Amino acid sequence: MKVYEKAPAKINLMLDVLRKRPDGFHEVEMIMTMVDLADRLELSEMKRDTIIISSQAGYIPLDEKNLAFQAARLLKERYGISRGVHIHLDKHIPVAAGLAGGSSDAAATLRGLNRLWRLGLSHTELQELGSELGSDIPFCVTGGTALATGRGEKLEPIFSMPQCWVILAKPPINVSTADVYGKLRADRITNHPSAALMREAVEARDFQAICGRLGNVLEEVTLKLHPEVLRLKEAMISLGADGVLMSGSGPTVFGLVSKQSKVPRIYNGLRGFCNEVYAVRSLC
Ligand SMILES: C[C@@](CO)(OP(=O)(O)O)[C@H](O)COP(=O)(O)OP(=O)(O)OC[C@H]1O[C@@H](n2ccc(N)nc2=O)[C@H](O)[C@@H]1O
Ligand SMILES: Nc1ncnc2c1ncn2[C@@H]1O[C@H](COP(=O)(O)OP(=O)(O)O)[C@@H](O)[C@H]1O
């Protein structure tokens, strides 16, 4: 038997860091939403009691470092499952991009194996399991639009993000999330974006207010390390995106656009100096 799951990318409409915690993680406030750029997973039962990961993408780990592998192993261990699974990852989300590709694959693995192995777990139970593997995985289990607090694992759904176009551009640089949080001076942040104001804008489906209230304190670190991310932001603004922000720890920059007629100009303009550009719809 086989099951299929879609694993969409996320963007952070706002990301604030409140403080560094004694456990080394940072207390955050983020509003995240899914976009229609997705990996596709095929999960097939195997007779042999083992976990196999395969992918057409040559640039991700296929061993126990893969987050989908870790999710399958966690379920097997926790529920005493002695069956094997082959997980094929058809990757479309850029890797280490601030778009939670690995986290979404892990969340999709939890959802898919819950069906394949008929475990009957609720989304809340899957989120709790996911939080053992990564801060963004609980959000990816349910998706939609949500306020995330704690280290990112405490979620409140928000209804509902207005439909819009999202242009994503990933410069050819690698950014490590741990490195960006590590370089952040949480006690020196002066310009905190407001989760309450962004939530209000989303709930009111006020696209212009959403664009005006975008903010991410991690830009401070990543833009200093990689000035090309700032240049990409400036290019997206001058090409006419309604609101522009770096997603997560970066380096992907996203632009929100309400009018479809504006999309080709922004997309083509960015392709001039960035290979990885995507024009997708928001997923509400
Ligand atoms: C920045 C964000 C924003 O959505 O996303 P990405 O840029 O990675 O997509 C997240 O907070 C990333 O979540 P995720 O990628 O799941 O992080 P984890 O695997 O849990 O942690 C990786 C490392 O980041 C740091 N970390 C992560 C989350 C957090 N609230 N505080 C932290 O300090 C820790 O050093 C940790 O060891
Ligand atoms: N299924 C997966 N897809 C992509 N990357 C993965 C996966 N499993 C583990 N990784 C590793 O996780 C790291 C972060 O990847 P990713 O989730 O794409 O980035 P981000 O956290 O910036 O959104 C990369 O170093 C990558 O090698």
From TrEMBL:
Ranges for domain GHMP kinase N-terminal: 66-144
EC number: 2.7.1.148
Top EC class, one word: transferase
Keywords, alphabetical: ATP-binding, Isoprene biosynthesis, Kinase, Nucleotide-binding, Transferase
Catalysis performed (reactions): 4-CDP-2-C-methyl-D-erythritol + ATP = 4-CDP-2-C-methyl-D-erythritol 2-phosphate + ADP + H(+)
Domain of life: Bacteria
Name of the protein in question: 4-diphosphocytidyl-2-C-methyl-D-erythritol kinase
Organism from which the protein derives: Paenibacillus stellifer
Lineage, uppermost ranks: Bacteria, Bacillati, Bacillota, Bacilli, Bacillales
